[in-house]
Amino acid sequence: MKKRAPVSDIMTKTVITLNYKDELETAEKLFKTKKIRHIPVVSGDTIKGMLSYTDLLRISFADAIDEDDDTVDTVVYNMFTIEQVMAKNLVSVPSTTTIKEVAEILATKEFHALPIVDNDKLVGIVTTTDLIKYLLDQYK
């Protein structure tokens, strides 16, 4: 196992994002069609927050809708904005942060994704799933 491997080795570099002005319905469609659980919310290249699928579940019945169904009941979504629902006080790390340091952060915090930010620009995202896959690769 490489002890000083940077998080850039395992992060997702092609990040699916939402604009902070997007609709929550758009977010749910992305979660379901892309089969992801965390989406950084941006304004340009600057990260403003993080929206998780769990955040949507807290305000809706999104999980009661068939995952293959493209129709979404937007009544609840029309009551909130992405800015109201997303996590705002984010912890982010640069791409040079070691995988071990990222694992320590994720193991001690109550979130499961970290935005990777270099020079105030979102360059990636790393999740607990990425860490687990990395650890499993060490046993091959």
Verbal overview:
By secondary structure, this protein is an alpha+beta fold. It has a single domain, classed as CBS-domain (Roll). The protein is built from five helices and five strands; from the N terminus they run E-H-E-E-H-H-H-E-E-H. The protein has helices at residues 24-34, 53-59, 82-85, 99-108, 128-137; strands spanning 18-19, 38-43, 46-52, 113-118, 121-127. The strands form two sheets. The chain has a three-stranded mixed sheet with strand order 1-2-3. A two-stranded antiparallel ribbon has the order 4-5. The longest helix has 11 residues, at 24-34. It is globular and about 50 Å long. It comes from Bizionia sediminis. This is CBS domain-containing protein. Pfam families: CBS (PF00571).
CATH topology: CBS-domain
Strand count: 5
Distance between the termini: 11 Å
The SSE order reads EHEEHHHEEH
- Helix amount, in percent? 25-40%
What is the CATH superfamily? Answer: CBS-domain
What multimeric state do the chains show?
Answer: single chain
Task: Report the C-alpha radius of gyration, rounded.
Answer: 16 Å
Proportion of strand residues = 15-25%
- Strands of the widest sheet, in order across it, are 1-2-3
Number of structural domains:
1
Give the integer mean of the pLDDT values: 89
Which regions have little confidence, pLDDT < 50, spanning 5+ residues?
A: none
Q: Quickly name the level 1 CATH class.
A: Alpha Beta
